[in-house]
From TrEMBL, chain A:
Matching CDD domains: ACT_ThrD-II-like (cd04886)
Protein name per Swiss-Prot or TrEMBL: ACT domain-containing protein
Classification via InterPro entries: ACT_ThrD-II-like
From TrEMBL, chain B:
UniProt xrefs under NCBIfam families: PRK06270.1, PRK06349.1
Entry-linked Gene3D superfamilies: Dihydrodipicolinate Reductase, domain 2 (3.30.360.10), NAD(P)-binding Rossmann-like Domain (3.40.50.720)
Aspartate/homoserine dehydrogenase NAD-binding domain boundaries: 10-145
Provenance organism: Methanohalophilus halophilus
Taxonomy of the source species: Archaea, Methanobacteriati, Methanobacteriota, Stenosarchaea group, Methanomicrobia
Protein name: Homoserine dehydrogenase
Amino acid sequence: MRVSMDIELKDTPGQLLCALTPISELRGNLKSIVHHHEERTPRGTIPVQLVFEAEPDNLDAIIEKLKENGIGISRVDEKRLIEEGAVILIGHIVHTDIQDTIDRIDRTGYAEVVDISLSMPHINTTSSASLKICAVGIKELHDAISILKDVAEKKDLLVVEPIRAEFS
Amino acid sequence: MKIIRASIIGFGSVGQGVAQVFLQKKEEIQKKGFDLKVVAVADSRSAAIDEKGLDLEKVLKSKKENGQVGTETLSGLEVIRNVEHEVVIETTPTDIETGGVGLDNMLTAFGKRMDVVTSNKGPLALKYGELAEVAQKNNAKFRFEATVGGAMPAINLIRDTLAGNSIISIEGILNGTCNYILTRMMEEHASYEQMLAESQELGIAETDPTYDVEGIDAACKLVILANYVFGMKATYHDVDVKGITSITPEALSLAQSEGYVIKQIGEVKDGFIQTSPRLVPESHPLAVGGTLNVVSVQTDLAGTVTSTGRGAGSIETASAILSDLISIYRED
């Protein structure tokens, strides 16, 4: 998942290292860091904004270690589903239990169908749908699309997925 | 100047295109250091033979007026067996079930230590390994740029321009008919059936469009790339194939609202060959329209290199055949 965090550092040497070490030790992947050295909080500390990706299970440990290192944390925002992909489905989407098709993705726990647009021109013709799938990582997004393809094959639906370069 | 004697076996639109291009490019070919003399032309019913070199204008005229190239009754195979020459230009129709006469023509030519330049996909999609082995054993040259994407450089781009690179994967649009139908469906918000009919009327799709729209034609081209580039021992039957027949105009509109176009994309990657309709971002180099073909080659040194061009047409295919001939016989 992607974590956005505001922290506060004391204006003494080595503080930034104290903040970043726990993240890298717990296999977090730093995406951006903005160090407002010219600014001061009312407490006299320096505000720093961090964005990093981490395994959901490791976030509490990262926060704990930051606190142990004397780093103040003023805000933590988590975004669990960070990879997004679109696919198109063609076939008798509704008649083959659309809810079940969506549930198969949602039940994975690592991916969800977050948007669906359906077009049914006539009652007996095939319908088309675009599905937006969000997942906790790129691998999980690929896995979710594989599951969708398995389900679609059984229901005689065509899955039009993005070219691979789009996902990697 | 060195004289290269050639036969043209198969005189449909590609064979005739080759003859027209030879007439048109006579001087340019000589500037490359050799004179190309066509000593035999064979179609399915007749042959024209002249060891001093045929008058190709006359042969083209005869084909147009009488429906056959000449008065000789030799088959293409007999021409290869009995007429002295160095290179066979094999342009008989593709037969994906058995390889057709093309397979016999090529094997016989190699057996006689003759070089082969071809546009015929069938034999390569079924028996590339055997053909390449027999050619090598007989020290004969085997060139087939025209089998993959007509005038669009693919095989020779990888062989020459990207020499030294390791090829990671190849993806692209290798069938102009599918691309035309999908492009027009999106432009007109029209059904597959309507746009198939339009492309048949324009001569872009065949009366029996199965090879194109079911993805079979693209699959054959992918097999040729997979075998040549990655040394795979694949045949057409190893390709995961899905065609465009169930694509709806609604699906194209939904894709467009997400910033995508739907294209029939072929892909060779990690030992896996597939062709299917895929979502391509509108601004992506693979999102070419109309009847264009495109191939994108992922390499270790050069990154991704993309080539676009006309994938069909008799003169365009003849361009690829001429390029192969020049690359075999040019004097540096």
